[in-house]
Fold each of these.
Amino acid sequence: MRQGVPAVVNYFDMHGVEEALRIKDKYGARVTVLTMGPPSADKALKQCISMGADEGVLVSDRAFAGADTLATSYVLATAIYKAADTWGPVDIIFAGKQTSDGDTGQVGPGIACRIDYEQLTYVQKVEDLNPETGELTVHRHLEDGVERVKTKTPVLITVVTELNVPRRASLPGMLRAARYTPIVWTTNDFEDLDRSKIGLHGSPTIVSKTWVPEPKHVETEMLSGSAQEMSSAVIDRLFASELKQSLNWA
Amino acid sequence: MAEERRRKMIGLQPEGEIDWSEYKGIMVVVEQRAGQAKPVSWQLLGEAKRLAQKLDAPLMALVMGEGVRDIADEAIGYGADIVYLSDAPELRDYRTRPYSRVCLKVIRTYKPEIVLMGATYTGRDLAGAIATHLPTGLTADSTQLDVDDERLLLASRPAFSEKMLATILCKQFKPQMATVRAGVFQALPFDSARAGEVVEVSEDMREGDIVTKVLEFIQDTNRVNLEDAQVIVAGGRGVGGPDGFKLLEELARTLGGTVAASRAATDLGWMDHAYQVGQTGTTVRPKLYFAIGISGAVQHVVGMQNSDYIIAVNKDANAPIFQIANYGIVGDLFEVVPLLTRAFQERLTPVVTR
């Protein structure tokens, strides 16, 4: 695995960080944690340092605000290239499945596509990794079962929480984190960044309106009487409906 | 190095004005495993048919896989006018690269103005890659779709901690893309007499060039399947803990249904996330839904409001859940649920007298 630099995108995703650290413990690797967000995200980066990550990078600039999936994946892909220039080739990228309401689980695939990496989503287990050949086998969590898939680095992996239990910080880790100041990259740090493709301006999707949905109009019948009476009344009404037939209530 | 980096950045938006007028019609990407189409694909065709009629444009389906000719015919029965069929051994299992390649070729050749996929694990994996490649805008996890007079796709999804819905547009590029939750829309009745056209699409692929290999798929028969459940007994914060859910399980068992939970109950660890109904969980459409100790937050309601019959049991007479319930019981669920269970048992179990 050349130099081995798993990078981790999406802050608050400690499962991806944990898996990268396990690879580091076993085979030796440099773990860089990369996140795009507001300055306050540096706390999460320091937590990753306390767990054992080598570097924490905060990609932060007002110009990135309002970005949709396409603009976000562009900035993060650019940052991953810069991380590779700074610390060496990036073999594995771990990304969270989903961080918050706004994120849709599409940023991971977006990054993989942009930088032309193999893409494995919803990974719940890394079964095997060969550091010599870069071959790895993982289990993907799907709706109806588990898929065992084999691929080769470079690869981007999005993880689910079943993957592992993130470790607690070690004492030396905490000491290092206390002294550590996360690296901050702004638009000025990316020489090739096309400013027309970032932030709100570089996002093809726009929110045209937001509203509180009206509840579906239903004629609600509130039952009355004792608990016993109300329960029987509901059941009488259900048995008198088409449910009796459609649910095969003989 | 800088030159190489620039070359490798895939999916940069084209500059200037582009004429998108050639893009016409709606395309639904059909998802299948082992020759079985996923129900969400037919649900999408059902809703897309309505949109296609509004746009006066064709409804297309894209079927990819190995030995999936039958699915192409099925897609016509569910409403597609034209089915693009790519049948190849390299497409036996879903893998991002070969599927993206076919999908991109079909989109670039046949130019749909709207592309829809299920918001399933596979759909999200593929949609994220396709939208970046093209590139175009993608609205994920939509729960409502419409089109306006300017042929814009209005894709709505919950936002702001799921208390509201946001309508998202992509004015700049075509196709306009969205992934859509399973269980939200209804499939049209299957019509075996419907006529349509199947167009075969081939893409030159060699297995040796595809890095990722699927070794096996292990079906999980115990996996919670809320989407297909006919009866759901769901509990929320009011249930009070894992013990309370045992009462719900008994009622569910009596009715041959399954238990489910609100986000509050899964966040508190009372039930596994797999049981969660709502925007961050599963969207369900059972024939009968019991909402027990659930207040009825928007994020829950959007996931179950299309149930045929909703029965709400809550201590609080003002709980918003009552607004969408067919029948409401204000009372103590610890008293009411066992009564419901017993009454159903009495009426459903055949009494054998000798």
Note: Residues 69-87 of chain A form the longest helix (19 residues).
Amino acid sequence: MNSKISLLAMTLASVMGLGVVANANAANETDALAKAIAKQEAEIAALKQQLNLLTEQQKSQSAQQQVERDALMSKVETVASEVSTAQDRYSRFSFKSYGTSNYTSDEYFDNVQDTSPERRNRFDLERIVTEFGYQFTDEWSMEVEIEYEHGGTGTSLEYDGFDEFGEFESEVEAGGEVIVEKAEIRYRPSKEFGVKFGNIHLPIGLTSTLHKPNQYLTVLRHKSEAAMLPAVWNENGIGVYGEISDFHYQAQVVSGLNSEYFRTYDWAASGHQKRFEHVNGDDLAFAGRLDYGNFKTGSAVGVAYYYGNTSGNRHKSNKLDVDGAMSIVSVAGAFVEGPWILRGQYLYGTLENTDAITQANKTTPGLRPGNFAQLGSESQSFFVEAGVKLDSWINIPITAFANIDYSNPLMAVETGAATKRFENTWSSVGINYFPIPEIVIKAEGGIHQVAVASIPDTNFFALGVGYQFSL
Amino acid sequence: MKFKYSAITFSLIMGLSACGGSGSDDTAPIVPDDSFSFVATEMITNLTNEVIVDGYADLASKGEALFNATQSLINSTSQADLIAAQAAWKAARQPWEQGESHIFGPVDSLSIDPHLDSWPLNTTDLQTQLNSAVGFDAETIKGWNDDVQGFHTMEYLLFGDGVNDNTKNIAELTTREREYLVALAEVFRDYTKQLDDAWQVSHNPQDTNALPYAELLKQPGTSTNTIYSSQLAVVEELINGMIGIVDEVGNGKIADPFGDSITTADTSKVESQYSWNSLTDFSNNIIGVRNVYRGEYTGSADKQGLIDFVAAADTVLATRIGSEIDDAILKIQAIKGSNDMPFRQAILDVEGRKRVQVAVDALSKLQASLESDMLPLLSDWKTS
């Protein structure tokens, strides 16, 4: 552009110079001069026009540039806003995972007559759990928990030492070793009140609250609870919950248990309906809990109650014409202060018409409770674990602990005398070592006692590693 | 050998290409025709009526007799009464053990087997019941776990612990033991009756319109028969029943307590150790196999059995399996030796162990013949 302007200036200058020379020549050349002048003027006019044109072009170009700049700016703004929206959405998504892998060494008996145990060692990739959550809005959120037990899905071969000659049974882990353990939608307009529905965790049993490896001291989860209830109990239903000052409450209506699968050795635990594609919902149950304090974060005390019928959910509905109402009461406490950890829970349950349920289970074709049909009309279990964090005294993040688990799913029977064969006590000591806060390595050794005098006490030992993290 | 195959292949190719021009393609390989015909109706009907149903009817009547025999013990001081009850127990044991060669159908689907014959016995829990229970009645006992009821609980009460002998003095029988025994025998009688009914009246006690199981076996392939779609399915069930018990006796009942050496032998695993009836049990199991194979009980007039099915395909095989069954029975019975040694003692005796090994070998041989020679005949059988 600049070169064009210079060119124009030079042309003007030379035209003017020529004009002066011409005046000095002859007057009769006036006409010719006038012509020349007119020509020059015409040229000047043309040049001015060109100049104007150029100026206008310049103007329009800069206007276009402005438009382009504006467009660019708006694009930048869009991208920036998209990025911030994505960031916002990402911050609404949560991912957590935890898992444990164990090595256990226990002594086993061959059959009910055997009193000389044999030591067997086992490895188990106990569970890997993934939790996905999303906060749709301030009030609405969801969470899905998927658990992979014992390394995946498939068929498994089990050895049953109590069977006739000790029999091998191939078992399809129906319902899967890959389990959706929780799939809930939550609406929580305030801290004081929320609603959750879908597949939700029942607040019965502390394991439902404290199931990550850093939340309990033993290598395996508490055996006492697993010998009586579904541990980390989940059902389909709806519940309300919230916290008012230091009180936490929960109240739920959920799918009930199925008494067809109740067994002598673990009472209601195997009645948890997860073997089939559909969960029978003919009998619903109520579950409630009230805690003062927070078990997840520190000290607390709490009570829980479960009530539900169990006959309606049987597949063979013509086998049993009486109710099988079940109730469970739990009392739990935790004291977590400085280096000290003390937790405990007592569970007591009752089941009605156990003789009739036993009979129905024993005589249902294909059900095969085998020798484990008899059911306790009363059941109880408890645990107490105590730990002390040694890093207050030594510079290593180690917690030493002692634990007692007790369970008796056959505490009382409707008629006759209850055998003490299922009354178990596990007493142990051990350590939890945290090389980093997300990882815990555990060791535990103890004694397992059966309340039958002729069955000798056995020793067990376990090592475990667990992790947990959240994005 | 490889060279031979190559030569054959080469000549085949040459031969085929030579034929190629002529347009002839009649070169399909000649498969030897192993198929055989056999009309199974009479055999199935006979086995069902004369062997299986008769066997369970016999068991039910022996169950009734055992119940009566225990009742007479309630206030008795007579040793003869106890011996009679012991004999009644052994008598009931016979049709039950022989029936294990066809332990399918109601005995399985109604889960009656564990109620009658759970092993091992839970002596600890039994003692708890004897010490603490207020009274015994059949209905209560039905609700208890299977390891404190059935044959072996009655055996323990009637014969004692069996460690040094299989005799018991009537004076040693406590009042509670007598009460418990009567209640157990009543439960036992009820189950054997239920089993008999399932075969002869209705195979599903919940549904009175259901056919007797015997009819399902005898009339396969009818529209109302949801269990057996064809005669082939029935014959397969029968053969697998034989294989099942031969396997259990050889590899379970005998081999498990036997162990791999005298130091790993475990008498606690010996079934019927209190009465020292083990060898009788085992041989009865294989006699049951013979009943199904021959189609009649030992000594009865000849009727059609699985031997006729096998003979239709291969008479030599039919004879061979028959003699292998007889041999297995003899070898089991021979374990007792010349001094009538019970099984629980034989597995701890050097010479006894040799005799046990001979019996195990005979059972293995029989099992191999049933699995490898008899079962495959099903695929050659032209059922129409």
Note: The first helix of chain A runs from residue 2 to 24.
